Fold this sequence. Notes:
By secondary structure, this protein is an alpha+beta fold. The protein folds into four domains: about 1-60, Arc Repressor Mutant, subunit A (Orthogonal Bundle); about 70-125, no CATH class; about 140-210, SH3 type barrels; about 230-315, Alpha-Beta Plaits. It has helices at about 1-15, 20-30, 30-45, 75-80, 85-90, 95-110, 110-125, 140-150, 215-230, 240-250, 275-285, 295-315; strands spanning about 50, 60, 155-160, 160-175, 175-185, 185-190, 195-205, 230-240, 270-275, 290-295. The strands form three sheets. The protein has a five-stranded antiparallel beta sheet, covered by helices on one side. Strands 9-8-10 form a three-stranded antiparallel beta sheet. Strand 1 and strand 2 form a beta hairpin. Helix 1 (about 1-15) crosses helix 7 (about 110-125). The chain is extended and about 80 Å long. The model has no long low-confidence stretch (mean pLDDT about 85). This is YafY family transcriptional regulator.
Amino acid sequence: xxxxxxxxxxxxxxxxxxxxxxxxxxxxxxxxxxxxxxxxxxxxxxxxxxxxxxxxxxxxxxxxxxxxxxxxxxxxxxxxxxxxxxxxxxxxxxxxxxxxxxxxxxxxxxxxxxxxxxxxxxxxxxxxxxxxxxxxxxxxxxxxxxxxxxxxxxxxxxxxxxxxxxxxxxxxxxxxxxxxxxxxxxxxxxxxxxxxxxxxxxxxxxxxxxxxxxxxxxxxxxxxxxxxxxxxxxxxxxxxxxxxxxxxxxxxxxxxxxxxxxxxxxxxxxxxxxxxxxxxxxxxxxxxxxxxxxxxxxxxxxxxxxxxxxxxxxxx
Length: 316
């Protein structure tokens, strides 16, 4: 968005003695014309920019000028990552700190940029839990766990009745449920923070694994967990609509298969691995008349019985 681009441009200029319009255009992914227009708007907003032409020219801020962003504390700087997600900031014990950081950030911006930022704040809300969920209960140990993650210090915790000392590598919020990703005895595991009954940040520090990427690790761990549950084999025929929607009902990993060529009606045959016959029955019922179970026969009979009962009940 343009407001965020202007802020980024201002901070880039603040962090370097001199740059060029071409370099800014490449860094920000915009045209030279856009850079020149943005520079003019920043100047009009009161940012003291100096432009020089020629071989050794460029764009720079006047010596000694800085934005007010230096007034942010360390905690407020960390809380900037949670602006727009107040529920997560509250969980981590950073609700008031995030509000303070937001106030300082807005106050530091020139008026045109501040107006754009306030519009997004007032018109965008991130609702972290899914629909139809009960109100969340806070994890009392989460702020302590978060401190250990940010400080890079070992954590001693009671988890499901046993005490462990771990190297906390990161936190993941999935559908408003928090997980600690930590190294324990050489293995990287995830722990649901609501199951941590006590936590103490230790003085010991640790070295993070080389190249560890929290998002990539979590995505891989999720996929591995999903695959570990898929032990029930089933062969299905699916209508074009059912094949298009199948991942929504059985999950992405289970639907990661190659179908047969469509028949004359567009139906395809797929070999799936699902969690269990009981789970498969509930999942496939949602596909209605767009699914036919080829095997196993036990699932075919049970799905047929469900369909017959639904038809009889709704024919009255």
